[in-house]
Write a structure and sequence with these properties.
The protein contains two helices and twelve strands. The protein is mainly beta. It has a single domain, classed as Rieske Iron-sulfur Protein. The strands form three sheets. It has a six-stranded antiparallel β-sheet with strand order 1-12-11-4-3-2, with no helix packed on it. Strands 7-8-9-10 form a four-stranded antiparallel β-sheet, with no helix packed on it. The structure holds FE2/S2 (inorganic) cluster.
């Protein structure tokens, strides 16, 4: 796929870009250079429901995260269902054996370990709501004493 004619008219293939300026613009746009992701304190383990049926919601950077405890294991995924951007997955329907959570609003289902969307596109593919969606953000979990720490998985 090429650029439209009106766009190509302003540049030739020989156009030299100022890579330094381009880099500076990227950094400004992204709030500075990419820093290695660090674990961030999220909550205490006793704050997370232990029955696996509900998640604990915490604020992390620019995301809302749902932390689930299933069989003594912790899973942290974005709380935001990408269909309509609803902050609701912590209250989703948890399938403990399959390690999945289903959005209670319209049934989109996500794998808790990987964030992959497993189902939910049927019947709404033409609505424009999906747009190449592959899943939701997932967080690595670290427990120290009774503290739960999260790091956005790359
Ligand atoms: S808002 Fe989650 S499936 Fe519609």
């Amino acid at each position: 796929m090429g650029f439209p004619d009106f766009f190509m008219g302003e540049f030739s293939e020989d156009t030299d870009f100022d890579e330094t300026a381009l880099d500076a613009a990227r950094r400004e746009l992204n709030d500075g250079p990419e820093a290695p992701r660090e674990f961030t304190f999220a909550c205490r383990i006793q704050d997370i429901p232990s029955d696996g049926q509900r998640g604990k919601v915490v604020e992390m950077d620019r995301d809302e995260v749902a932390i689930f405890q299933i069989g003594g294991e912790l899973f942290a995924i974005s709380n935001i269902c990408p269909h309509e951007n609803s902050p609701i997955l912590a209250a989703g329907i948890v399938h403990c054996e399959a390690m999945t959570v289903t959005c209670p609003l319209h049934g989109w289902t996500f794998d808790m370990a990987s964030g992959t969307m497993l189902s939910g596109t049927e019947g709404v593919a033409d609505s424009g709501a999906i747009g190449g969606l592959g899943g939701i953000p997932v967080y690595d979990v670290k427990v120290e004493q009774d503290e739960v720490w999260l790091r956005l998985r790359e």
